[in-house]
Amino acid sequence: MLTTQLKYDLVMFFREIFYLIFTIVIPPATYLFMGQLFGGATYGENLNYVQFYTPSFIILITFSVVFFAFGFDQVMNRSMGIEKRISIAPVDMRTLLFSNIIKSVIITTLGFMTITFIGITVYSLEIGFADFLKSYGVFILINAALLTISSAIYSFFKEMKSALVFSIVLFQIVLFTADFTVPVDGMPKFIQVIANLNPIYHINHLFIDVWNGMFSLNGDSAISLGYIAALVFISMLLVTRKARN
Amino acid sequence: MQNITVKGLKKSYGSKEVLKGLDFSAEQGEVIAVIGKNGAGKSTFLESLMMIRDFDEGRIELFGKDIRKLNAKAVRELKRDMSTVLQPTNFYKNLKVKELLSLFNAYYGKDADLEGTIRRFELGEHMKSPFDKLSGGWKQRVALAIAFMTSPRLVILDEPTTGLDPYMRDVLWKNIIRHNREHKGTILLSTHYMDEVERYCDKVLLIHEGRAQVFDKPANILAASGHASINDFYLAQIGETEAVPC
Lengths: 245, 246
Description:
heterodimer; A: globular; B: 9 helices; 10 strands; ABC-type transporter activity (chain A); transmembrane helix (chain A); ABC2_TM (chain A); transmembrane (chain A); ABC-2 type transport system permease protein (chain A)
């Protein structure tokens, strides 16, 4: 049953233009476009474009998939009565949830590989096998954290329109306050405050460090990890409470 | 054998009491119409039977099992013998009709007669159409095909003929009768078409002000009330003016 559901979940994802544009098209295109404009610049702690933005765009794709194709998709199914219709069928709801999670992991992995491939072929990205594996492991943990946060946030939405507006606004906020485009350091102070509240900003910087073999547990990384862990914990409480209801 | 037994079913939404102690039972193989004004509680009653709407008081037994005493696995087992059409009808919008049939067949884990279902509901020309691209009538047709595909012992249909043209209404009723004859399936349906109630249903349940006001065979109802049709009887029961003679 799980394989059948997963097959159709993937089919539905690849037939939804809205999801494809925000997950598969925009992030790689922006990665390529920005590389042409700012490829020679230096970022953060003496990182070049490909070292800084390759992990960043992997996180951007992961965020887009998890928030659009997982979170928003749940609201769409709820508001259109699809969830209700399926709940009448003799299918274990855990099967549907696992299928959705595996779908997200497959699509984000595809994004991970695509960005890495573009980095290697277009921008001469160099990454050791051990760092690549370590990064993929952390990437899966990030997936789990984002899936939990996304589930909690979208469980509050009953209507598709409000969830859609929220998703598009959220995408813009995340795009500009998580160091995916113009570096936050060069932005006005209030944007930097928003960035510090944005969990994707913290996730992005932790992942950049892991990707480049620069991660160490210090004050900054401990704050980022603690903040993300707290959000995941709160999200898990919310999801469990909603599920019980 | 009784497929459905309902005793003292009560349900409120906030301060509004929708069901006020409804009693009902259905034997295997019966076709029963549930009628009543909009907002009378028909959908709440049917959704309680479908196990997707919790109720406040009372008891529901399906195939002899008290649904409140079942664990999740037992509920899933019970659902394998049931199917339904909801209002409004919606499925995964990006899946094609043949994919939806295949997916729901997998949900039920039965070896359904897909070809026969496609033929009986005349879905052939739209098998490769995404569900979202179908008109309302075709969507309803797909929903009905899915409901009958696995030959369930109990089919619950919430206003199944709404939005269907007369030809498709006829196709639906032929399938209900066939299902009832071949599988001794119990059919419970809410409808506003009183001609269908009179013509096809074994019994009529009239829900009025949250209770089962009348529950009997159409012929008995007409004989006891003296009305010429179920439509006249219905209008008289819900307190509307007499039907205007044609």
